[in-house]
Amino acid sequence: MSNQIGIFDVIHETLDKLDGDGVLLMAGDPPNPMTIGWGTIGIIWHKPILTVYVRPTRFTFQLMEKSLDFTVCILPESFTKHLAFCGTKSGRDMNKVEKCGFTLQPGILVKTPFIAESSIHYECRIVHKHRLDPSTLDQEIVNHYYPLKDFHMVYYGEILGVYRNSSRVTRDA
Length: 173
Known about the structure:
Number of strands: 10
Number of helices: 5
CATH architecture: Roll
CATH topology: Pnp Oxidase, Chain A
Number of domains: 1
Radius of gyration: 15 Å
Distance between the termini: 22 Å
Strand content: 35-45%
């Protein structure tokens, strides 16, 4: 069961996960989970926004380009190996949902499903996107994070709902 919570009730937990083992970005049909470690949450255009960053070389990029929405799933600590797997394997080569044994639940406010095993999930509607412009990016960041010049596309998702998933399954990773 998913209980809606306040949009900023779990912001610290979300940011801690982003800066730690990561969270799963879900997009596409069929949906593909990709581990992300970069994102922001805030207010833009008087809307609550969650931004996610996807390199054009990633399989998820193709899925996001065809999507109107996405979900972001925060998994419990026992899923660390699953997060590592989804961050190092490509959905081009396999069905990561099946390989990880994830259970998909239909999105409540969006088309994209969420992972039932997540403790928290965000449902977002894409309201803007843009590719990072290297000419306006600090050169130190360009040198460190973009040696291959594969600059991220930034997707701005209006947060339509945030849910605590109380009937989640826990398992050892």
